[in-house]
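Preliminary data (for renewal application), zinc ion complex.
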Amino acid sequence: MYDTRFYKGDYQERQRQANEDKCVAYVEHHFNSSASPSANYAVVITGANASQTSRNWGRWYAQAVAREFNIAVGGDQGILVGGYNGRGDYNLRFTNMPAILLEPLFASNPQHAEWIKSESGQSRLAQVLTDSIQRFFPNRGLIGLSVGHKYKTSSPNDRGAAIYGGGWEADYAEQVLTKAEAMLKAVAEPQLNRLVRVVQGDQLLWQWVVDEDAEINWDPVRGVLRIGQ
Ligand SMILES: [Zn+2]
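Predicted structure:
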């Protein structure tokens, strides 16, 4: 299992504490927002000084969210190194461990807002994040969690962007991270095997270990998933 800790206070203070605790990875959760309600992509911000692991992890996560919800990826194959004109950089650049800032869905997009506010949508986001952590940090350790905007000492009322139809970015980001925390704590052993999973909504119906080299082909007409030749 993984250990987790939520960090609060101003962003630099959170990062300082995560360094002191020797976190193996650090995640800050946001939702994106745009004047255009049709903006429809997943993106991850890394610090300008991000390691290759941070970049690869961020791309893996953004691309997995895009496939999960059938949306586009933003940035450079899913990541914006150094943030939006520097915005986001200071949220991560002082960490000593791989660190990413998640912008998986748009608070301003009506369809995305439905996912953000639903238990099922939150669980699906939490599962993608948990999968990404298992994939990139298989040896486990302490995962640092940070809710964007909320709990800043210098700006205690900040909750980020308004969600279409009501509510605030930071409150829903916190719900996703809380679900991810429960999933991470429930991980019994490292994910060493390649898995095929069948899911419906946020429910796992079936899973099977497959050979690392197996080719997998889905025939949507016959409804057959063929593993191997
Ligand atoms: Zn934000």
